[in-house]
Amino acid sequence: MDFLLGLFSRVTGSEEVARLLFLGAIGLSTVLAVVAVSLLILGLQDPVQRRLALIKRGHLGNTAGQEAPGNLQLLLERVGQRFASAESAQTSVTQTLLTHAGYRSSSAVQMYWAVRLMTPLLLVGIALLLLPMIPRVSLAMGLLVVVLAAGIGWLLPALYVAKRKQLRQGRLRAAFPDALDLMVVCVESGLALPTTIERVAEEMSVSQVELAEELALVNAQIRAGISSTAALKQLAVRTGLDDVQGLVSLLAQSIRFGTSVADTLRIYADEFRDRRTQAAEEMGAKIGTKLIFPLIFCLWPSFFLVAIGPAMIGVLKVFG
């Protein structure tokens, strides 16, 4: 309290005006907080509002095997719907990013924007609570800490989603060669393409869960009536990998022109192995360049210290 009063006094220059502003801010904040919490609780607990929210999300009360979302999730979705950008291009970019990160829910975009909005507010509140505990903090430093907390809270969800996307694509890229070899074996043994995808998904369900889920989803779409070409194109969009995009393009051409799928898969498997070898050779060629900085900053100072250090100590003793 004293810290905040001191800040108001520095800004206004009068202690009485600072007290009035401080009391007014506390009263207004209390009223707004009570009203907001009341409206949220009433809106979430209202059976009609909750039923409408569940119907909009596709959850029916008599549907078996579906778990209805909780109040917190519905709250975050509502906040995200208010805050999400109305532009279709921005929504499409965010949806693509979340899909690549593994979030395929219909409400993923709303949840993402809600978390990006609530996290800065939470960190700003924590910063305001911790600032009075730090002695001798100026007004400029306090404002800088609050702004920094808000910026970190705004960027943190985006960084987390980007990192999750990178890790997921790395796991999919590592699992793709094994899946490609299994597809070649299955197709050459006489299985059709949908059956091949189903069998590969079953075989990789333990070792590579994410790629198995993607292939199982492709098989489910084909069974639902979507063409194989369209289902494979959606697989390339969901993963965002160039390797999968190349395979999908070759399979689409093979299905369109009636050529052998086994030959197409075998040729692509050979090309993919060549690309992997070239990528490994490129990474190996870059090692020498990357080792320059560790040598300069870690090894050479120790070497000069051991080699020249005794001589320098002797020179200093002689001329000292």
Name a few traits of the molecule:
320 residues, mainly alpha, 14 helices, 0% strand, transmembrane, cell membrane, Type II secretion system F family protein
Helix and strand run: HHHHHHHHHHHHHH
Cα-based radius of gyration, to the nearest Å: 30 Å
Helix content: over 70%
Determine the N-to-C terminus distance: 60 Å
Mind describing the biggest β-sheet? none
Q: What would you call the structural class? A: mainly alpha
Q: Number of DSSP helices? A: 14
The number of distinct β-strands equals 0
Subcellular location: Cell membrane
Domain Type II secretion system protein GspF: 180-307
Transmembrane segments: 20-42, 113-134, 140-162, 291-316
Pfam families: T2SSF
What does the model show?
There is one protein chain. This protein is 82% helix and 0% strand. It has helices spanning 2-12, 15-45, 47-57, 71-83, 88-101, 108-130, 139-188, 193-203, 209-223, 228-239, 242-257, 261-285, 287-290, 292-319. It is flat, with a radius of gyration of 30 Å. Mean pLDDT is 77; it is low at 59-68.
Brief sketch in words of this structure:
The protein has 14 helices and no strands.
Task: Walk me through the topology.
Blueprint: H1 2-12, H2 15-45, H3 47-57, H4 71-83, H5 88-101, H6 108-130, H7 139-188, H8 193-203, H9 209-223, H10 228-239, H11 242-257, H12 261-285, H13 287-290, H14 292-319
Helix pairs in contact: 1-2, 4-6, 5-7, 6-7, 7-8, 7-12, 8-9, 9-10, 10-11, 11-12
